[in-house]
Design a protein that fits this description.
353 residues; alpha/beta; Thrombin, subunit H; 2 domains; nine-stranded mixed beta sheet; six-stranded antiparallel β-barrel; 8 helices; globular
């Protein structure tokens, strides 16, 4: 249960979704009953009927930043850069044309401190230092940084989506973003939410379900590979979160009445579980979440979750295994492979209840 290899499964590469489904809510949905281990094959639009009128549906309203940049070093070599901590850096009161961020840089040679990288629109990044594979880069812009980044940056699609990264697909600007995204700061989408449309949300509300939001800016830690054989030794990177007083009130009221809290995505799960008080209630506020959930964890807030299918040996697979049981999850994944579900960020969904 604690060995990394316990979270491996065979996945044909052809099942890794390279593009979103033609319609947001057109994906398939595997419904897993975690108490019995039984599952059924459905369509995502069935989520309206699978939710109860008394449920609270908690979504993550983070917004993905187009934080992948392509440029050239002053010496001429190409460089690709990904901003990692856009949503975790306090820029209040800072010069809107100067920012310092932690970044990944892909280049033919390591970028030494002092290296200047030139981007479109007159944006310049200067490497300050380098530690454990991550660079600190100071950016200077001839215009407000946020607007320029939005214009020249690309959506940071995961590496298993194998397209030519130098040719941005404008479809991704819309589809690699939830319809309820509000708070700019993520480097990856909370992908379980990608299936929802305004129409589906309206039908859910009409049924009597309460929808509440938390914010967790999805960062590098969510996708950082586990590099230890004993998963208990893995340490998560921190990600900034915020829970409004109103959200905490809605969730606490639901729990006091015995109603379900249904989390959309593992990021919502981690945020809710991280902010639990000693008395089991949800606290409002903000901070940095580093909660790593793996089998043996006792859930306090979340009663059901909507999620996508996750990578082998990933912390996300460990989280859903903690929620439903490792063997139950692996059997469900095996069935999904057999039925040719689409996997990962642009893939199909699961409801675990």
């Amino acid at each position: 249960m604690y060995a990394l290899d316990d979270y491996h499964y065979h996945l044909p590469e052809t099942l890794i979704a390279q593009t979103p489904a033609p319609d947001r809510d057109g994906s398939r949905l595997l419904h897993l009953d975690r108490s019995s281990g039984a599952f059924s094959h459905r369509h995502f639009q069935d989520i309206v009927n699978l939710l109860r009128p008394s449920d609270v549906l908690v979504v993550n309203d983070t917004r993905v930043v187009p934080g992948r940049l392509h440029g050239r070093k002053e010496t001429g070599g190409k460089a690709e850069l990904l901003i990692l901590d856009y949503g975790a850096t306090d820029v209040h009161g800072c010069d809107d044309r100067e920012r310092v961020y932690q970044c990944l840089i892909k280049a033919s040679k390591l970028a030494a401190p002092g290296t200047r990288i030139l981007f479109q629109g007159g944006l310049v990044g200067e490497v300050r230092n380098f530690c454990d594979g991550i660079y600190s880069v100071a950016f200077s812009s001839p215009e407000p940084f946020d607007g320029l980044l939005d214009r020249i940056g690309q959506m940071p699609l995961p590496p298993y989506i194998k397209r030519n990264a130098t040719q941005p697909d404008e479809t991704d600007r819309m589809r690699y973003q939830t319809v309820y995204a509000r708070e700019q700061g993520a480097i990856a989408a909370p992908t379980a939410g990608l299936h929802f449309t305004d129409g589906i949300l309206a039908r859910i509300r009409a049924k009597g379900v309460t929808i509440a939001a938390v914010t967790l800016h999805v960062g590098y830690g969510t996708f950082a590979p586990v590099r230890v054989d004993d998963i208990r030794k893995h340490r998560m990177h921190v990600e900034w979160f915020f829970i409004a007083e109103e959200t905490a009130r809605i969730v606490n009221q639901a729990k006091s009445k015995g109603h379900r809290v249904v989390a959309v995505g593992t990021t919502s799960v981690r945020t809710l579980e991280y902010a639990v008080r000693s008395d089991g209630s949800l606290a409002s506020g903000s901070g940095r979440c580093d909660l790593f959930i793996y089998p043996g964890y006792a859930f306090n807030i979340v009663d059901a979750m909507i999620t996508n299918f996750h990578l082998p040996r990933s912390t996300l697979l460990m989280l859903v295994s903690a929620f439903a049981g490792r063997q139950v999850i692996l059997e469900a994944y095996q069935a999904a492979v057999k039925e040719k579900y689409r996997f990962f960020s642009y893939g199909d969904a699961m409801l675990i209840s």
